[in-house]
Amino acid sequence: MALNAKATQEFIPIKEIRDGIIVLKEGELRAIVLANSVNLSLKSSDEQKATILQFQNFLNTLDFPVQISVQSRRLDIRPYLMLLESRIKVQNEPLIKLQTKEYIEFIRNFTESVSIMTKSFFVVIPYSHTVFKSDSGMLGRFFSRKSKEEAQALKQIDFEEKRSQLEERVAVIQQGLNRCGINSAQLDTEEVVEVFYKVFNPGELEGKIKLE
After folding, report:
1. 72 pLDDT tier (thresholds 50, 70, 90)
2. Which helix (H) or strand (E) holds 59?
3. For residues 34 and 184, is the Cβ–Cβ distance under 8 A?
4. Whole-number Å distance between alpha carbons of 100 and 119
């Protein structure tokens, strides 16, 4: 007996990704901010306490929820090795060519025996508001007369209003992280798609998202 197969999209609550903003099927919005890490082990005891306290104070000042996500993935060293191999082809000094080949072999053997992991830190920022809906009565009949162009315009206005509120939250998050000594950047559409591709394809190696 054949089973009714459902598309993967039916199980994902995302409607679309527009201008770097995730639009959920329920109408809520999400933005993703990529943050760098802080190595506390390189700081003194007092500096560690000050950093932790600053981050705690930052979280306590927020009046909206956020989600902090950490992705650990194996580092793809192949682009780096390809770069070194291309350098060999244009190198005229025999000794340097030999040393580069030995270095490539060392890196290849080392990464095959030891899993080098890379971590990405994301802050997911939400925004939602309650929308009154009516399918019957005078109000429903009024909106039913709207043309497709008018309905699309209203949707765009609603999106822009919600995005404005969301971007204010993003600014608050980035300012707070900056006070903690953490650099951050909001992901654009292509980068957001890459994040979700990695989530749903965990077997793939590390991609190109990075914090400048």
Report:
1. confident
2. helix 45-61
3. yes
4. 28
Which ranges of the chain would DSSP assign to H, the alpha helix? 45-61, 78-90, 94-113, 137-144, 148-179, 189-200
Query: Which amino acid makes up residue 77?
Result: I
Q: What is the pLDDT of residues 80-107, one digit of tens each?
A: 889 999 988 888 888 988 999 999 999 9
Q: Please indicate, yes or no, whether the overall pTM of this predicted structure exceeds 0.85.
A: no
3-state SS, residue 117 = strand
What is the C-alpha separation between 30 and 51, in angstroms, rounded? 27
Which distant-in-sequence residues (6+ apart) come within 8 Å of 140 by Cβ?
Answer: 134
Q: Do 53 and 124 reside in the same domain of the chain?
A: yes
Query: Is 47 in contact with 39 (CB distance < 8 Å)?
Result: no
Q: In angstroms, rounded to a whole number, what is the distance separating the alpha carbons of residues 184 and 36?
A: 6
CA 101 to chain centre: 36
Could you tell me the residue range of the domain that residue 110 belongs to?
Answer: 76-115
- Say yes or no: 162 and 188 in one domain: yes
User: In which residue are the tokens 């309905």 written?
Assistant: 151
- Asked if the structure places residue 67 within a domain, the reply is yes
Please state, in angstroms and rounded to a whole number, the distance separating the CA atoms of residues 96 and 90: 11
Query: Do the Cβ atoms of 201 and 26 come closer than 8 Å?
Result: no
pLDDT tens-digit series, residues 36-69: 988 888 889 999 999 999 999 999 999 999 999 9
